[in-house]
Amino acid sequence: MSHRVAIVGAGFGGLFAARALRRAPVDVTVVDRTNHHLFQPLLYQVATGVLSEGDVAPAIRDVLRNQRNARVLLGEVIDVDLQARELVVDTVGERSRIAYDSLIVAAGAAQSYFGHDEFAVHAPGMKTIDDALELRGRIFGAFELAELEAEAKRRDTWLTFVVVGAGPTGVELAGQIAELSRRALKRDYRTFDPADARVILVEAAGKVLAPFPEPLQHRARHDLERLGVEVRLDTLVTGVDEEGLDVTRDGVDGRIDARTKIWAAGVQASPLGAMIAGQVGATVDRAGRVSVRPDCTLPGHPEVFVIGDLMRLDGLPGVAEVAMQSGAHAARTIARRLRGDTRGRPFRYRDLGTMATISRFRAVVSIGRVRLTGLAAWLTWLLVHLVFLTGFKNRFAAAANWAVAFLGHGRRQRTITERQVFARKKELG
Ligand SMILES: Cc1cc2nc3c(=O)[nH]c(=O)nc-3n(C[C@H](O)[C@H](O)[C@H](O)COP(=O)(O)OP(=O)(O)OC[C@H]3O[C@@H](n4cnc5c(N)ncnc54)[C@H](O)[C@@H]3O)c2cc1C
After folding, report:
1. What is the pLDDT of residue 424?
2. 304 in ligand 1 pocket by Cβ < 6 Å?
3. Cα-to-centroid distance, 155 and ligand 1 (Å)
4. CA of 107 to the centre of ligand 1 (A)
5. Ligand 1 centre distance from Cα of residue 280 (Å)
6. Distance 308 CA to ligand 1 centre (A)
7. Per-domain residue ranges for the chain?
């Protein structure tokens, strides 16, 4: 029997690990609770109608179809039995166990509301395809419902969009919603001008794009404001309800009336991390990430790798590149061990830089000492995303949708379901 490798999660970490094992003498089992690999960095474009969900979320089964040593199972891993070396999997109520010789845990992270999970009902996050489609329904639904609203003040609350959190996701979302209202929807409504929509970006810290060098932070803020986004820094959200948000700044309480709120602040690692760490007494940080050994293994369990957003190591950030490289590192370590080389090699991260788009033709990019802004940065962003987008079909479809959205005025993916709009109207009365 070949060495059995189980991989939990087919995100950036898990999928890269699986692919890196394609020539190894192993049987790989990938377990994910969804059927797709999600390219999270482009999720905001699904929410704002630029891309379709299929463009950014190919079926895992399709991606691994030609990898003969890999199988894909749909299910949620609810426990890991480290002693028996088995995963406990739940698939729509059916329990099963999967035995492994090596395990790679790459279950990623979810949205964190910093102890205020009740905010989620009114301010959905942006982590999954379900989230992006929910937000698409809310964003385009808000414009539809504004068209029906006779009273100006009520209409304004439909036309106010608040994004909480000015990290890359919040900045990209705010920029896209502003561009949607000012460009893409220009001639679509009769009772109001979509360009009057307010887009407000609220951030508890004193800057936008905190992980970026300071000049790029300033540039991003400047570009957002030129687009018409109101940037409110040092502002803490203290309450969220159907009609808006309560905020506080310098001890002064305030209120923003807005029907559409989006939460893009904070991440919490999968609870699977704490579950595994608890069994061996490993440390878990406040964000739920497991402290691993320098080779990404769980203390006392060299056969278990914890990688990507779930791993805490040397202050590495929760970004796609860390997940991909740590996934490949785990795979290489397993393959080496099978060749008899049992020396543990530390994971060395190669920082390939960070980037964020603000609108079409505007982005910020930081690669080593190189800093790019404006069109040059945007073209770099476009190229990198085309190269990294999983699957040729997806690249082709994304390029076609981008051509329509960026060169023309349209948004091809504006479909929202009947259930979405009417459920919302009913919920709000
Ligand atoms: C909106 C958004 C934008 C981003 N933009 C960027 C960007 O521009 N650049 C960048 O570098 N990074 C970006 N990131 C971060 C990047 O996407 C993550 O760092 C990366 O996805 C982490 O990879 P991962 O494999 O650890 O986890 P993920 O990619 O999150 O994958 C986890 C997988 O595990 C599955 N899973 C979770 N729990 C279970 C379970 N119990 N059982 C079975 N399956 C499970 C999930 O379904 C998922 O498929 C962004 C993230 C988000 C949310």
Report:
1. 66
2. no
3. 36
4. 8
5. 25
6. 8
7. 3-33+75-111+267-338, 117-264+416-428
pLDDT at 409: 80
Yes or no: say if 296 and 307 are a contact pair by the CB < 8 Å rule. Answer: yes
The residue nearest atom 52 of ligand 1, judged by CA position, is: 40
pLDDT for 422 equals 65
Best of 319, 329, 367 to mutate for ligand 1, by most ligand atoms within 8 A of CB?
A: 319
Distances (CA, A) of 155 to 139, 197, 200: 14, 10, 16
Average pLDDT over residues 54-60: 94
Range with the poorest average pLDDT among 31-35, 281-285, 400-404: 400-404
Q: Closest ligand 1 atom to the C-alpha of 44?
A: 1
Distances (CA, A) of 4 to 7, 18, 43, 234, 308: 10, 12, 33, 50, 21
> Between helices 374-388 and 392-402, what is the axis angle to 10°?
150
What is the pTM (predicted TM-score) of this model?
Answer: 0.95
Distance in angstroms (rounded) separating the CA atoms of residues 243 and 389: 37
pLDDT computed for residue 366 by the predictor = 94
Q: What mean pLDDT do residues 387-404 have?
A: 85
Whether the Cβ atoms of residue 126 and residue 135 lie closer than 8 Å to each other: yes
Please report the pLDDT score of residue 159 as a whole number: 98
Residues tagged active-site: 172
**Would you say the CB of residue 167 lies under 6 angstroms from ligand 1?**
no
Residue 304 confidence (pLDDT): 98
By residue count, the chain amounts to: 429
> What digits encode the pLDDT tens for the residues 121-170?
999 999 999 999 999 999 999 999 999 999 999 999 999 999 999 999 99
26 lines ligand 1 (CB under 6 A): no
* 117-264+416-428 CATH pick, 3.40.50.300, 3.50.50.100, 3.30.70.20, 3.10.20.540: 3.50.50.100
CB neighbours of residue 232 within 10 Å = 16
Asked if pLDDT for residue 429 goes beyond 60, the answer is no
